[in-house]
Amino acid sequence: MASVTVIEAETVKTLVSSIDHKLTALSADTSCSYPSCIYRVPEKPRKANEAAYTPRLVSIGPLHHKSGQLRGMESYKLRCLRNFLKRSVVGLVELAWFVAGCESIVRGCYEDTINLNQEEFLEVILLDGIFIVELFLRNCFPDLKEGSDIIFINRWMRSDLLHDMLLLENQLPIIVTEGLLNYVDNSFRRGMTLHHLAYDFFKDVGKTGILPMAKHCYNARHFVEFLLLLHTPVPLYRKRLAMKFQYTRSATELQQAGVKFRCAEGNKCLFNVAFTEGELMLPNLIVNEWTETFFRNIIAFEQCGYHSKDITSYVMLMDSLINTPEDVVLLENHRIIINDLGETKVVAELFNNLYKEVVTETDDFYFAQLCDDLNAYSKDPFHEFKSKWFRWRRMLSRDYFSNPWSSISVLAASVLLILTLIQTVCSILQVK
Asked: So where does this one cross the membrane (predicted)?
């Protein structure tokens, strides 16, 4: 073997040093109970709607910390720290030691590379964690707000902030915010847990404000997962999934085939869907300015390796039911969709575009059996004939009876046809 030159030896030394540095940067605790759970949204879904994954007002965590357009909120975070220290049972030194103790766990939660040194990273954890705690406390207890708190007196800032808190890339592990909340004097937090404060903050998102908070919600590692767990069935009661399926027909097509629609009574979760004796029961959903951001980021989280695809399944079902604005109107008439966006076309486009560029596994589809049942019902000969009759009748109504003049024309043509037929019969009888 040829002898190693001085230049080659230096190259090897530099290589080893570089790899050692990268190994040292990895989380020291590889057995940590907080494996990666905060991800960069994949490129394909991001291209479908960049704005639904990008913070508008505030950066939470390290992934968007250096975004120039978000730097304006850093002074607000410092004011939050100042107020937090007035409510805290410990001082700044103890808080700094707390976040330093969380560093390896928190780093392990982010799948992407964090381009911050240790001091910068710990400052982000501390300020962003305290910002969230202060935000939740002020939201829940109005007497804690400062007189000129711009976030709460400016509606568009409140809307943008809620949008930013729903983003997968804009999350901080709950272990940090929960630990910081524990340092707040109980006279200020009044016995409220972080999860109850989060529930109150996100009450206008999805069905959060009317759903009970089950025990498994406390297993959430960040707020996107908290909302996912809140909106999905308890694991104990999961339905058996079918391996093969076809998406069902649209709402209007099902109605034409004889399917009746009914809104589930009470405050039912998104998965309280049933089809029995020709009636499809669906829970209601308020569609508002946060609906798309909410669904897109939960779908992104599920697609990045989460163990189930339940919210993705719900969106797929709704997309199958909604093809046109007429489908939206039908669901609105039955109070299944409560439209706060205004135009039915906007709602239809929202559901039609939500899971574009998403890889779908058929064996993960929660509503496979439901779709099979609906397809079997609408495709049997009687309901197939009923559907065709409905479409034919609607075509006549649209093309020939849409206004009085066309109706008169059809009526006159019909009378003329009948008279002609009578005349022909009479002529035949006279010949005989």
From this structure: 405-429
Lookup: tokens for 194: 């972080």
Considering the entire predicted model, what is its pTM? 0.82
DSSP one-letter string for 233-302:
--GGGPPPPPSS--PPPPHHHHHHTT-EEEEPSSS--TT--EEETTEEEE--EEE-TTHHHHHHHHHHHH
Summarised one tens digit per residue, pLDDT across range 226-269 is 999 999 987 645 555 555 667 888 999 999 888 999 999 876 78
> Residue 419: which pLDDT band, with cuts at 50, 70 and 90?
confident
C-beta of residue 173 within 8 angstroms of C-beta of residue 221: yes
> Over the chain, what is the mean pLDDT?
85
Contact 108, 36 (CB under 8 A): yes
Q: Report which of residues 177 and 243 the model is more confident about.
A: 177
Determine if residue 341 is left, alpha or beta; phi over 0 gives left, psi from -120 to 50 gives alpha, anything else beta: alpha
Give yes or no for a contact between 127 and 60, defined as CB atoms under 8 angstroms apart. no
Separation of CA 324 from chain center:
21
What digits encode the pLDDT tens for the residues 185-209?
A: 999 999 999 999 999 999 999 999 9
**Mean pLDDT value of segment 17-27:** 67
- The three-state secondary structure class of 184 is strand
> What is the 3 state secondary structure string of 62-88?
CCCCCCHHHHHHHHHHHHHHHHHHHHE
At 265, the amino acid letter reads E
Which residues, 6+ apart, have CB-to-CB distance to 316 below 8 Å? 247, 355, 360, 365, 367
Token pair for 19? 């790899």
Q: How far is Cα of residue 313 from the mean position of the Cα atoms in its chain?
A: 11
Q: In angstroms, rounded to a whole number, what is the distance separating the alpha carbons of residues 78 and 81?
A: 5
Of the candidates 35, 39, 38, the one whose C-alpha atom is nearest the C-alpha of residue 27 is 35
Please give the C-alpha separations between residue 125 and each of 2, 107, 263, 425, in angstroms, as whole numbers: 52, 10, 44, 93
- Phi then psi for 334, rounded to 5 degrees? -100, 10
